[in-house]
Structure formats: structure tokens, C-alpha cells
Amino acid sequence: MRIAPLHPEEDERIAYLESFRIETDREKVLDELTELACKLTKVPKSLISIVDKDEVWFKSQKGLQLDPSPRELSFCSHATSWDEDNFFYIEDASQHKDFKDHPYVNAENGVKFYAGVQLKDSNNLPLGTICVLDDKPHKLDNEQKQSLIMIADLVMRQLELNKRNADLSEKTRLLEENNEMLRNFAHVVSHDMKMPLANMILTSDVMSKKYNTVLNEDGQRYLRAIKDSAFSMSHYVDNILSHYESDQLAIEEKDQFDIYSIIEKVEELIGRKDDIQLVFPEDNLLVNSNSAAIEQILLNLIGNSIKYNESDLIKIQILATETPKYYRIAVKDNGIGIPKDKQKDIFKLFTTLNKTDRSGKKGNGIGLSTVKILVDKLGGVIKCDSLINSGTTFTFTVRK
Q1: What angle do CA 326, 331, 336 make, to 5 degrees?
Q2: Contact, 11 vs 84, CB < 8 A?
Q3: How many CB atoms are closer than 10 A to CB 179?
Q4: Which residues contact 80 (CB under 8 A, 6 or more apart)?
Q5: Strand, coil or helix: what is 76?
Q6: CA Rg value for the chain
Q7: CA–CA distance, 365 with 350 (Å, rounded to integer)
Q8: Could you tell me the pTM of the whole model?
Q9: Sign of the dihedral defined by the CA atoms of residues 190, 193, 199, 204, in that order
Q10: How many Å apart are CA 371 and CA 383, to the nearest integer?
Q11: pLDDT at 284
Q12: Residue 145 and residue 387: Cα distance in Å, rounded?
């Protein structure tokens, strides 16, 4: 009896097999392929075997219910180490010089016929086999052999698909873990920074008043610069918190509201000013969605329309319509505009246009990223249409 040899590149083969993370659970599509193998070859039993380090186990079985077997005794192990051809074929094992004394051949209803095709891809490292076997001798013609080879290709494609799905699930899990760590880090760091920044602002005011008669104009200017920097950093921290908290917002919680009421809330938050003309939609659209999310979106978009605008009179028009499946809301302004080649990147975190706003400050690239997250969670899309010195229109949809 010949013991099944190891594959010439056994260590690499086992490492490659482990990368597939193949589960022992049965799969309908693989069970259908073993059944198809039996029908096309007219052999009553079929297996999809996985040749592991120490044992061979079976992902699918047709006409059999076998437990895992020792690797060195398995016919499938012979098939995976066979380097002359992908097709391992024994018409009558009881008459074969290498297998006539094999315990699996001489057992009751033992293996007499075996035909197996290696399961492998371009890496040329077989994971196992698709095989047909019987306790009676058989012969396969060329068409039947080609059928088994094609089924082996289909099995391998399914295993590769499973691997890609498993890899994607693992990457998604790691990404979620990293995002959670980043959210926690941002939350802790941001809150830890808020108090020192508040102290800087308060101290600057106290020093400016207490030493008003002592400090010259340069000294007062330095204190104002410290205070402005602290306010900018505080605003940046608030935006960081809003960004990561937006990802955790329970968007599925819906409430009914009219669009006018949301715009009025935003108007109160930004403050009513004579040089800002906010035009409401012609019709007061009734919306059934997450009001907090839409308020945050409009606050960011309208806030940007005000900040990045050099007109004496800032005009911001809100449009709101609906279709059977979506609400469509647009914010149109007469601001400085966004270059065409920059429009596809503006929703990425920390992406800025290196332009200063009306107050001479640069953006931090967080607001539009937060908007994109919220729109995605609302089941919609957002797009930007803009011309330099002619204004910008942001249009986003919300799934009903």
C-alpha cells in the first residue's frame, strides 16, 4: 500500500488553504455541484474534499456520510499531491498495484473506483478535490472527464467567492473597530481640549481688561490673536465631535416636520443679519425623516454659503421638492464658487480649498464630510454644481 505523499510545496499549500478560512457548514451551491458530478459521470457518489494538514474532511457529500479521515490514507490526498495531471483516476483499485492492499479498498463496500480533480487556481496550490467514487469499477469517457474538470472549476470559483466575502467581512470588521477607536480617541481628546481652550479665552479677556492701561497696542493685538486662535481651535474641536457623532446618529428614528421650521431653526442658529437674504422654498414641504440630521446638513451648507461669499448681499435660496421615493433639497448661493477639478474631493475628511472665509480664516475640511455621512445614512446622494464667482448649488436627496 502506498502512503499519500505530501504536496511538493506542502507548507505553502497549507498556508494558502488557511487563507480561505473554509467553514465546515454545508452550502447549497456546493451540494448541487456534487449532485451534478454524479449525474454527468453516472457514478453514484461524489465528494468535495478539503485536504488539511493532518486530515481530509468533506465540504459536500453526495451518496455518502463520511467522517474526516487521516491525510496519509485518503485517496483525495493522493490526488492533491499528484503532479503529473490535475486528474487522478483509478478504474479498479482492487487491481491497482499501489492500492489493492489499501484498507479503504478492502473494507466492506470499499472504494474500487476513484476519479478526482484538484481544486486550485492560478497559484497552482490545490485545496482538495471534487471526486466521484464507487464500490464498483468504472470507466469515464473523455466527455465525462471534461465534465468533472468543469465542475472542479465551478467549485473553485465558489470557494474563491467565499474567500473574497470572508476577506471583505474581516476588513469591514477591522475598519469598524478602527473607526470606533478613532471615534473614542477624538471624543476623549476633544473633550479634554475644551476646558484648556475655554481657559485661554477667559484668561485673554481678563488680561486685556486688567492690563488695559499697561499693554500697548501690540500687546492687545497679541492677546486678541491668542483669543482668536483659541476660538478657532474650539470650533475645530466642535466640528470633530460633530463629525464622529454624526456617524452614530440614529437616522432610522423619523419624525414629521415641515421644511420651513427646520430652516427657521438654522436661521436662528446662524443669526439673522441685514446682509444675508435667506429665501425659503415656494411651498412648505412636509417631510417624514430625521429632523436632527437634516437640520445639521442645512446648518453646514448654509453656514458655508455665508462664510465663502464676498458679495455685499449674501443670497441663499432653499429649494425643496419630492418624488414618490425621495425628498430633494437644494441650497443655492451667490458665493465665490468651487473650482471644477476640486468638486469631487470636497466631501473627503480634512479636504480644503486653501481659501479663507469672510473672516480671513481657513476651513478645516470637516463640515462637508459630515454632510456626506448624514446624507448617506439618510439613503440619499449629494452633488455639487458650481462656477467660480457665480455661486454654488448643493443638492441632496433623502429616501422616504
Answers
A1: 145
A2: no
A3: 12
A4: 7, 13, 51, 118, 126, 127, 128, 129
A5: helix
A6: 35
A7: 4
A8: 0.53
A9: negative
A10: 11
A11: 95
A12: 65
> What is the structure's pLDDT at 350?
63
Q: State residue 44 phi and psi, 5-degree precision.
A: -75, -15
Q: What is the full DSSP assignment across 325-360?
A: SEEEEEEEE-S----GGGTTTTTSTT---S-B-TTS
Strands 326-333 and 69-70: unpaired
Q: Which residues contact 258 (CB under 8 A, 6 or more apart)?
A: 284, 285, 286, 287
Cell of 247: 456617524
Residue labelled with grid coordinates 437644494: 330
Local confidence band at 211 (pLDDT 50, 70, 90 cut-offs)? confident
List b or e across 355-394, with b for residues whose CB sees 16 or more CB atoms inside 10 angstroms: eebeeeeebbbbbbbbbbbbbebbebebebebeeeebbbb
Between CA 270 and CA 314 the distance in angstroms is: 13
CA angle 11, 17, 19 (to 5 degrees): 105
pLDDT tens digits, 86-101 = 899 999 999 999 999 9
Backbone φ and ψ for 201, nearest 5 degrees, come out as: -65, -45
Host H or E run for residue 104: helix 103-106
pLDDT tens per residue, range 110-148: 999 999 999 999 889 999 999 999 999 999 999 999 999
Nearest-angstrom CA–CA distance, 301 and 387 = 16
Determine the 3-state secondary structure of 140 from DSSP. Answer: coil
Give the Cβ contact number of residue 192 at 10 Å: 10
